[in-house]
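User: My advisor, Dr. K., asked me to get a structural model of this assembly before our group meeting. I'm new to this, so sorry if the format is off. These are the inputs:
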Amino acid sequence: MELTGAEIAIRCLQEEGVEYIFGYPGGAVLHIYDALFQQDKVKHILVRHEQAAVHAADGYARSSEKVGVALVTSGPGITNAVTGIATAYMDSIPLVVISGQVPSYAIGEDAFQEVDAVGITRPCVKHNFLIKDVKDIAPTIKKAFYLAKSGRPGPVLVDIPKDISNHKAEFIYPSSVNIRSYNPAGKGDSAQIKRAVQILLEAKRPMIYSGGGVVLSGASAQLIELVRLLGFPCTTTLMGLGAYPASDKQFVGMPGMHGTYEACMAMQHCDVLLAVGARFDDRVIGNVEHFAQVPRKIIHIDIDPSSIAKRVKVDVPVVGDLKLVLDQMLNALRSSKQKSDASDLTAWWKQVDEWRVKGGGLRYKNSTEIIKPQFVIEKLYEVTGGDAFVTSDVGQHQMWAAQYYKFNKPRRWINSGGLGTMGFGLPAAMGVQLINPGATVACVTGEGSIQMNIQELSTCKQFHLPIKVVSLNNRYLGMVRQWQEFFHGNRYSGSYMDALPDFVKLAEAYGHVGMRIDKPSDVEPALKEAFARKKDLVFMDFQTDPTENVFPMVPGGKGLSEVILSEDL
Amino acid sequence: MRHIISLLMENEAGALSRVAGLFSARGYNIESLAVAPTEDPTLSRMTIVTNGSDAVIEQINKQLNKLIDVAAVMDLSEGEHLERELMLVKVRSEGAARAELKRITDIFHGRVIDESDRTCTIELTDTCAKLDSFLQAIGRDLILETVRTGASGIGRGERILKL
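Assistant: The format is fine. Below is the predicted structure of the whole assembly, which you can bring to the meeting.
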């Protein structure tokens, strides 16, 4: 029996086991929405803005190892989705975004709601397709899912013109995909792994630096085993938090712009650095010339060869899937008769511990008068037993959440690390809550970020998503204000949030529970009350200290060992 | 340093723009780019002439390989190779000067492919550097139009880029 293109597209999603699709209808996707309506396997979540559809699919993917799917219409539908797509691209999140396009015969005529979707998304997708024949829909969607999740994952766009979604064809879903020009890496080269192991065992001041790749590859168990077997200090980037347990004694915290003193110093002064699925981002190693001043051997494992030797020189590149490569490494280590020099390691740990003391740990001056944002995160950690899924927006609150919520499991920390997209947190939390029903999901945000996608409170109401919004409201775009205080002579240009809404009333207007918390002594009771409301979305508006800054801080363009501690100012 | 990179890619709509977009997005230089289908019509062969430090060239190779439509990449400059570029050049040429122009054309192994009362069009295929020399030899003042294809390259002997 022949099906329409729209029906074929939905059948493909069923075949891929898609449970939820996040979308917003419009003219060019009417046939697809009609096909969605006539089945109940794939459930549609109607968002209030296309950017949120993509972020929700993204949160769904980040918290579940699945491919997130979004559906948007042509023109403004896809342009609104671009921020979400770029967010997923920068963090290598597997998504399939289906967009409607004007009818194929109208393409190029500046038709109503026409935009070159493939062109506009090209720099921020792993790949994209414009479908020109109804027979191509099934094989293309099959390819899209395969590309999205294999190799270095990423978003894939499938643009379907309206007429094609109404043409008919036989539905045949391919059982396998073969793309001759695409061969994602698997195991690592065994000679390179042997070299790497040799260098690791000879290291005097070794350091393991892991990133988001460990989460994406599902290699957390392998990483933990490797770190314990070697006895080396371990750090994880913002994207890797949770891949190695934060409460473990070998964990030295996050490195980089707002990392711990000990992580920054150990990264800078180690003699051997094992980079595992991390990309030496400017926010992680700071000034690249400063970083290169200290001679060290770098072993870099990554599935994407272009991530290796992009910003720093690498001595031993290993291309492969981290999970497989780390298994190979573990085997090589176990069968090696050589061991690390115990006295070297002891001396190195002594140095690291001294840095820990000097850095004084992550700390802030608490107050009984005014709520300190760090205090809210500490209490959030306690009240949720450290077991919540935490999404965040972008800014100071994001850094405090990363610092003070000790993530012990991968896929629990959901944030826009690469693109730094404000407005990510709430829609991402929707995706997280849907794929993890019954789980505790907190969205740590600020009064600036939350307003970038606050309309999604309506989606949360419609689909009964009991997310807990923890808003650290300091009446400023805090990170901008912090940089203006440090580097722009206290000229707070555009960073004061005037005319803020009453968030309690706003939450109530959307049918949720709103709470305003002014006093430090009310923080814990408020959090307890909010998290006890299992069925409600609770919006907690914490009035926090507007002058608080994030420390430690490696200023932009500076080196890792030029980190500023709070007392330095 | 100047590098000449050859690649095989799927002969599909948009494939060229993926390569061109990559170069502009990442701030790489393109001196020239030549592309056409191969004996297998599903594949296109592209030759890119670029320049950059070793680190930049390494990234260019890796980023090209990362494009889903790109099936194979070879940096021809890393080994023995040949390169040729085709140029059509229209020159103002009247009276006695034409004999001189034809003489220079002969020296460069070019061909006159069109003549009118006042113009003469020459076809020349050689390395990019030779084409530059030819233009210099004629003199800029007389040149009316220059059309160059950009270099096409191929490995010498058993150095083969094929799927």
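One thing worth pointing out at the meeting: The first strand of chain A starts at residue 2 and ends at 4.

User: Perfect, thanks a lot.
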